[in-house]
């Protein structure tokens, strides 16, 4: 029976090639978009779920800060609820061992990078994580060679993933092989494991033990309180433990242990603080502790993980993909329903004949549902093939790896098949019901076709109007995004970007005395390299050479007062930075390298002064004036403020005011910037002619291999324009995605309009013949028919304006500095959509208007 239905459905498709081609083409496009978006969303939701019992693994987040109002908290923002640092507090693991009921294992994963020499002696920098021996108790891996016992059998043992072993040894066995590492140390491969299950944020190829880290880095602080590293602290709980109960209980216990450890650390540093004339005790510390499920990390906001977890997730992008793909699939489905209903007006006679011969309504309904199922199946297959072909391009457009578009994921395939069944029922249900309940007499009455009235006709027009409205809304949003992109590109930022490049090292940057001394060789190497490289016209130092920053403003206070007068961003620079960046001076002066007053702080690096300076000069931007109560830039000169954690001075004296800088995205209000002289300089901003860039880059490259402690120092060079563009990269990708969906939606809607107009013209052949017989010219007939369609499309598009305006304006509201929607965007979008609709209708209209009256009256039925 099913084969009979399918064969009949196939013959019906062949007998109506125009209907079949349009419906399958539009539905295939809709299925393609839904498959690509669905596969991407599924992969983002699957992060870390490849690990065994991933929902039982928790990330431990902890941070401690000085309480507001204390000396060490001056200039620092208070610890806010929900904000945590993504750091490993190395002393916490032994302190909580055995104290958490339900915890079966814990491990620390500390970020790092290793430079290893392969068998040919070629040096390779390879992604490394330092872990505890208990790592495989938390994150289960399949061992290809070796086992847990051999993995970290010795301090110099390392574990390679399959891809890491292949990179270093090719197809040769890696177990037991030795590699030359840093400072002459030899690393021995203790095991080889499978790569971390994808998709994942873990990208390591080498695992080394904490003992290896102590071997490589003499400065490593062991398990002392106050020592932290970039990485993560993970806990696995028992299978029979209730996670919702374990987390709050563990948070409370860990918090108590953490507070005790931090208190001991503060007490141990009492003598050091006393020398600095600082009164500070354990009660002045504020802590935060919280556990976060591993499977919840990827889509968590930045503040949930400290912003340091590398993640390609963008919730706005994913929701836009889902909405755009859903709208596109709905438009495609509407197309099928519209054309099916239009065609059903001509199939009423067929239904009447079949019912007169004894066919039941149920049998007819199953037959027409079989047609819908066949069309949907063909469309899904073609859509899947199209998605497979354009998947690499789509991934590049969204700046995501292709692995995040896995069309062959078993769960995704199962959901897609279930969606296929629902789609077939959705697109076929009403046309099947409409035809199945046609009475035999009504079906055989040819006059019933002529009026084209009734629920079916109204539904086709209504769905077509929804298609046009949806396309108009998507196009308005896309045009709004494009207008904002142009506004961003044209808005003056307050600083210069042309021919400026940031040159960075991978040395750590800190303002402590210890870090300054440790990094002095790295700083001297950078200075020498940049100054001795031909092609660099000018250079300057800054702790943030990319100029743009994602840092949140910190409190600003008047010198000697604890009350905040506002907030701002501070940056440490040398005397050449502001002139090189093109700062526009409004009042006062910039830094002067020849001024004894200014030189004090520059000369203080790297050994900071034993006694605090009474004041240090700073240059500020115009945005600070309202906070100071100054009406003009001149009134701000000479005022003293405090910001950040000053290590050199009792106050900062404003000696200059410059024009505002958009140091953050235009989504944020311009914040005051306080430029402070001095600091630990590991970054350079340099002026380089683009014509000389390749030569400069080649001459800096040989500096790879400089060793600072256990770190191989590398120089990287990137244009400042890139840093600015990256701040809006996600917005541009979102714009391209919406514009793509809008274009496809317009195309699909035009296919529907073309198909519906073709059926409509067939129905109106007799009417056109009569009009022409009574003297109407072809142009008048074409204008009448085309005018009706254009008027309908125009009304549908205009009716979508309130929703389009609301959505577009809502998107713009995320920007503090934004373009206005204006009176042009909505009419332009409607004009574009209506223009394409007119083109789609025009061909059928021209063909119908050219029919001879005698032929029309003779052949119309």
Largest sheet: 11 strands, mixed
> Which percent band covers the strand fraction?
15-25%
- What structural class do you assign from the helix and strand content? alpha+beta
Contiguous helical run count: 29
> How many E strands?
24
Please tell me what the overall shape is. Answer: globular
- Report, as a whole number of angstroms, the end-to-end distance: 34 Å
| Cα-atom radius of gyration | 35 Å
User: What is the averaged pLDDT score?
Assistant: 76
Write the layout of secondary structure elements.
Layout: H1 2-15, H2 17-45, E1 57-66, E2 87-89, H3 92-96, E3 103-117, E4 123-131, H4 135-138, E5 143-145, H5 148-151, E6 157-161, H6 162-169, E7 178-180, E8 186-193, E9 206-209, H7 210-216, E10 228-237, H8 243-268, H9 270-275, E11 285-293, H10 302-305, H11 315-356, H12 361-397, H13 410-436, H14 440-444, H15 447-451, H16 455-490, E12 500-505, H17 513-532, E13 536-541, E14 554-558, E15 564-573, H18 577-580, E16 585-588, H19 596-604, E17 616-621, H20 625-628, H21 633-636, E18 640-643, E19 652-658, E20 673-677, E21 683-688, H22 693-700, E22 706-708, E23 711-713, E24 715-719, H23 720-727, H24 729-763, H25 765-773, H26 778-799, H27 801-812, H28 825-849, H29 853-859
Helix pairs in contact: 1-12, 2-11, 2-12, 2-24, 11-13, 11-16, 11-24, 12-13, 16-24, 16-26, 16-27, 16-28, 24-28, 25-29, 26-28
């Amino acid at each position: 029976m099913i084969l009979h239905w399918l064969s009949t459905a196939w013959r019906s498709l062949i007998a109506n090639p125009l209907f079949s081609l349009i419906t399958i083409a539009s539905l295939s496009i809709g299925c393609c978009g839904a498959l690509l978006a669905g596969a991407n969303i599924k992969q983002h939701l699957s992060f870390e779920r490849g690990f065994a019992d991933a929902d039982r693994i928790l990330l431990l987040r902890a941070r401690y800060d000085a309480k507001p109002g204390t000396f060490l908290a001056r200039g620092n923002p208070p610890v806010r609820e929900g904000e945590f640092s993504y750091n490993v507090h190395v002393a916490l693991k032994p302190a909580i061992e055995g104290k958490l009921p339900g915890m079966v294992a814990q491990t620390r994963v500390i970020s790092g990078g290793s430079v290893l020499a392969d068998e040919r002696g070629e040096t390779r920098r390879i992604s490394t994580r330092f872990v505890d021996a208990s790592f495989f108790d938390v994150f289960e891996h399949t061992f290809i060679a070796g086992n847990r016992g051999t993995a970290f059998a010795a301090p110099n043992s390392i574990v390679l993933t399959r891809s890491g072993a292949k990179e270093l040894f090719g197809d040769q066995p890696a177990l037991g092989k030795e590699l030359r590492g840093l400072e002459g140390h030899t690393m021995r491969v203790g095991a080889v494991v499978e790569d971390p299950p994808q998709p994942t944020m873990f990208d390591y190829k080498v695992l080394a033990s904490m003992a290896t880290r102590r071997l490589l880095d003499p400065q490593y602080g062991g398990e002392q309180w106050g020592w932290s590293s970039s990485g993560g602290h993970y806990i696995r709980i028992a299978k029979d433990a209730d996670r919702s109960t374990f987390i709050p209980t563990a948070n409370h216990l860990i918090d108590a242990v953490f507070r005790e450890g931090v208190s001991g650390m503060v007490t141990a540093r009492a003598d050091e603080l006393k020398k600095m004339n600082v009164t500070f005790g354990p009660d002045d510390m504020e802590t935060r502790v919280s556990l976060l499920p591993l499977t919840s990390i990827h889509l968590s906001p930045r503040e949930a993980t400290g912003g340091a977890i590398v993640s390609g997730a963008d919730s706005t992008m994913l929701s836009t993909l889902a909405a755009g793909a859903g709208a596109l699939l709905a438009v495609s489905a509407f197309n099928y329903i519209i054309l099916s209903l239009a065609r059903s007006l001509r199939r009423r006679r067929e239904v009447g004949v079949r019912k007169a011969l004894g066919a039941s309504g149920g049998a007819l309904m199953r037959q027409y549902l079989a047609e819908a199922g066949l069309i949907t199946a063909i469309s899904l297959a073609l859509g899947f093939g199209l998605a497979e072909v354009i998947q690499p391009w789509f991934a590049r457009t969204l700046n995501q790896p292709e692995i995040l578009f896995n069309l062959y994921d078993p769960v995704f395939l199962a959901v897609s098949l279930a969606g296929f069944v629902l789609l077939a029922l959705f697109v076929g249900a009403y046309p099947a019901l409409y035809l199945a309940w046609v009475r035999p007499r009504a079906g055989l009455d040819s006059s019933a076709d002529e009026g084209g009235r009734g629920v079916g006709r109204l539904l086709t027009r209504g769905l077509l109007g929804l298609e046009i409205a949806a396309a108009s809304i998507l196009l308005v949003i896309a045009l709004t995004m494009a207008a904002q992109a142009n506004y961003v590109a044209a808005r003056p930022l307050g600083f210069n970007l042309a021919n400026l490049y940031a040159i960075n090292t991978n040395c750590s940057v800190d303002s402590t005395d210890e870090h300054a001394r440790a990094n002095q060789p790295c700083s001297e190497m950078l200075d020498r390299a940049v100054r001795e490289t031909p092609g660099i016209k000018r250079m300057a130092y800054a702790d943030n050479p990319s100029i743009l920053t994602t840092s949140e403003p910190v409190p600003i206070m008047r010198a000697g007062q604890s009350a905040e007068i506002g907030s701002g961003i501070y940056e440490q620079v040398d005397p050449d930075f502001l002139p090189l960046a093109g700062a526009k001076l409004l009042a006062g002066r910039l830094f002067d390298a020849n001024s004894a007053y200014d030189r004090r702080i520059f000369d203080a690096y790297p050994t900071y002064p034993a006694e605090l300076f009474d004041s240090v000069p700073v240059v500020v931007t115009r945005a600070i004036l309202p906070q100071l109560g100054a009406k003009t830039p001149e009134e701000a000169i000479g005022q003293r403020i405090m910001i950040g954690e000053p290590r050199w001075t009792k106050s900062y004296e404003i000696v200059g005011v410059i024009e505002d800088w958009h140091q953050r995205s235009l989504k944020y209000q311009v914040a005051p910037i306080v430029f402070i002289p001095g600091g630990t300089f590991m970054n350079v901003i340099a002026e380089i002619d683009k014509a000389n860039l390749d030569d400069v880059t080649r001459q800096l490259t040989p500096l790879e291999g400089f060793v600072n402690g256990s770190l191989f120092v590398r120089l990287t060079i990137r244009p400042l324009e890139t840093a600015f563009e990256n701040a809006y990269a996600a917005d541009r990708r979102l714009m391209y995605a919406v514009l793509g969906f809008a274009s496809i939606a317009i195309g699909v809607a035009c296919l529907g309009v073309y198909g519906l107009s073709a059926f409509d013209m067939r129905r109106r052949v007799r009417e056109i013949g009569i009009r022409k017989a009574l003297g109407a010219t072809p142009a008048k007939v074409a204008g009448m028919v085309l005018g009706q369609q254009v008027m309908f499309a125009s009304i549908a598009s205009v009716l979508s304006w309130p929703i389009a305006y609301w959505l577009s304006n809502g998107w713009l509201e995320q920007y503090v500095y934004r373009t206005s929607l204006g009176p042009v965007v909505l009419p332009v979008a409607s004009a574009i959509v209506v223009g394409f609709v007119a083109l789609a209708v025009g061909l059928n209209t021209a063909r119908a208007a050219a029919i001879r009256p005698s032929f029309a009256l003779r052949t119309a039925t």
